[in-house]
Amino acid sequence: MKYYFLETDERNKIPYAINKNHAFDIRHVTKEGLAQFPRWNMTEMIFPQEGFFPDILCRPCLLLSETCIDVLMMYEVDASYRGIKLWDREKGVSATYFLTAMEEIECMAEETIYNRTGNRIEQLVLDKEKIGNSAAFTVKGYKRNGFIARLDYVESILRREARGIRFEEIYVR
User: Fold this and answer.
1) Among residues of the chain, what percentage have pLDDT more than 70?
2) Residue 110 contacts by C-beta under 8 Å, 6 or more apart in sequence?
3) So what's the pLDDT on residue 36?
4) Which parts of the chain register pLDDT below 70?
5) Calpha distance 124→111 (Å, rounded)
6) Would you state the pLDDT for residue 145?
7) How far apart are CA 12 and CA 26, in angstroms?
8) Do residues 38 and 82 lie in contact, with contact meaning Cβ atoms separated by under 8 Å?
9) Are residues 49 and 13 in contact, defined by beta-carbon separation less than 8 angstroms?
10) pTM
């Protein structure tokens, strides 16, 4: 099975300064910590001129569109999430996203390639046996903004015309 790293395509003009009013504590965005959040939250953002709302926002935390969360729930029935309403007070623009904390799996293979000083991963390699049946997850020790998704999840969101996402194939051994 193929796996891909999904992240926001930064070439688009996307919302920024999300949670500028500190409506929620980002430190508590964990699988267990999401239970402390209200079911719906409203937070401020800045929406750029000629802006675009992608289906995945990775900063300051993982926010998925309704399309992406619906597909996630098909593959990961125990995934937890909370609703987030992004709002630009000055422009009067808003969008609905879902805050989620993906399962973190320790599945980095020994074949992962680091830079010369050993402080940055240049090529991530996953151990297929440690992944199990997970369709979407983050990798313990891999600090890039985004998440790993199985090919069937990726195909499902693309069939539903997800936009503004960058995909990178990840090696699996």
Assistant:
1) 100
2) none
3) 87
4) none
5) 8
6) 92
7) 24
8) yes
9) yes
10) 0.91
Helix (H) or strand (E) holding 75: helix 66-75
Nearest to 6 by CA among 53, 46, 58: 58
CA gap 152, 156 in Å, rounded: 6
* Residue 35: per-residue pLDDT: 86
Query: Would you mind telling me the total number of residues written for the chain in this entry?
Result: 173
Cβ atoms 164, 57 nearer than 8 A: no
Measured CA to CA, the distance from residue 95 to residue 55 in angstroms comes to 11
Question: Could you give the 3-state DSSP secondary structure of residue 67?
Answer: helix
The residue type found at 29 is V
Q: Give me the DSSP letters along 119-134.
A: SSEEE-EE-HHHHTT-
pLDDT in tens, 63-74: 999 999 999 999
